[in-house]
Amino acid sequence: MSSDRVVELLRTAYADEIETVMNYQTNAIVLDGVRAEEIKESLKQDVQEELGHAEQLGQRLKQLDARPPGSAEFTAGQESLQPPEDSTDVLAVINGVLDAEEDAIATYRDLIDAAEAADDPVTEDLAVTLLSDEEAHRTEFRGFQKEYQRD
Questions:
Q1: CATH fold of the domain at 4-150
Q2: How far apart are CA 98 and CA 64, in angstroms?
């Protein structure tokens, strides 16, 4: 059986993924301009992947006789990923995505450590897989950031 820390981190990761879905979707809708199109398309694709992450985390919680948090237990925390006032400020969205990815990476690294300590290889394997996905997202958006900062 998994530890309380593992369950806590799974619940945190689940809520973060759901918040990310909301913010990616919103930013994909509100961004304007020709230069925004590639970012919007990437965000739309990432919405599905992040939703899949939440599903996997929720299923793992269920397997551990726990449950994912509902909306009443949710506290938003992704300040930098809020839609920018200027709907053409693509760099603000890119930087917000990078902040969210860094937070997810840190959470999954903590989850890997906690799962290893709790002798929970299934959760550890899930966290490693999700960590890899988040690192790939970060790499993609670092590339976008470099391009937009150059311009």
A1: Ferritin (1.20.1260)
A2: 31
Q: Is 41 helix (H, G, I), strand (E, B) or coil?
A: helix
Longest Cα pair distance anywhere in the chain, in angstroms? 52
Mean pLDDT, contiguous 10-residue spans, the chain (151 residues): 90 98 98 94 96 98 97 94 96 97 98 98 98 97 92 69
Cβ proximity of 78 and 97 under 8 Å: no
DSSP state of 88: T
| Helix, strand, coil fractions of the chain, as percent rounded to 5 | 80, 0, 20
Report which secondary-structure segment, H or E, holds 150: helix 121-150
Domain range list for the chain = 4-150
Q: Amino acid identity, residue 34?
A: V
For residue 22, how many other CB atoms are within 10 A of its CB? 15
